[in-house]
Amino acid sequence: MMLVILMFCVVSVLGSQLPPGVKLCRRSDSELSSCLATNIADGIQLFTRGNKDLDVPVLEPFVVEKIEIEGQATSSTSLIQKYENIRMYGIADGVRITNMKIDIDKGCSWEFDAFSPVVTMEADYTIKGQVVVFPINSHGKCNITLNNLMNKNSMTCEKYVKNDKTYIKLTNYTMNMKPEKISFYFGNIFPEDERISAEVLKTLNENSLDIFNEVKPGFERAISFIYMNVANKVFSKIPIDDIFLE
């Protein structure tokens, strides 16, 4: 199971709409990548409460209506997961951006790493399937916390012209999430037997990284799809020359 990381759409508010105090980045600048990395982190803090004009949602907490994941069976895990009323915390707190690489002139792509000290997801869950030796068919409240999370983000895009101005649109967004530690809590996971519930949670947390690695591709696809759609709403409002200055 996976959590949210960095709102990539914050990159797109680095144009003329920014409040005073944030440096604009020029494509000709030899330190473009460093400038963008700094501005992404600054932008996240500036827009923690969102921005209606740019369609930037509230980042703390970041709210997602629903995520459904039908995972592939692995050696120890086979789960159909559904999360609703999702509230994600930590994506705007202490984020550090590194390894920024960008190509806007010759092509349309960029990538960066985002480090978050703590990211937490609270939601209503429904899970069916099996974890290790335990069959699961339950629903309730859950809390999933990732510590020292490194997320590798990679995006491709295309340019298009609207009203004589050039805009960009993300065409692909992938992420690779690598937490140092994960803790799971699923309430009501075995409502008829508290002892088994405790044993299941113990097993989940003792094997949290292994279980996470088996189910994370579905989560990464779902989250990156949400981020890409949000980012494209923002990009559709600001021409590329207002985002990445000449």
Automatic annotation (TrEMBL):
GO terms for biological process: circadian rhythm. Gene3D superfamilies: Haemolymph juvenile hormone binding protein. GO terms for cellular component: extracellular space. Pfam families: JHBP. InterPro entries: Haemolymph_juvenile_hormone-bd (IPR010562), To_sf (IPR038606). Keywords: Biological rhythms, Signal. SMART domains: JHBP. The keyword Repressor does not apply. Residues 1-15 form the signal peptide. The keyword Ribosomal protein does not apply. Belongs to the TO family. This is Protein takeout-like. It comes from Aromia moschata.
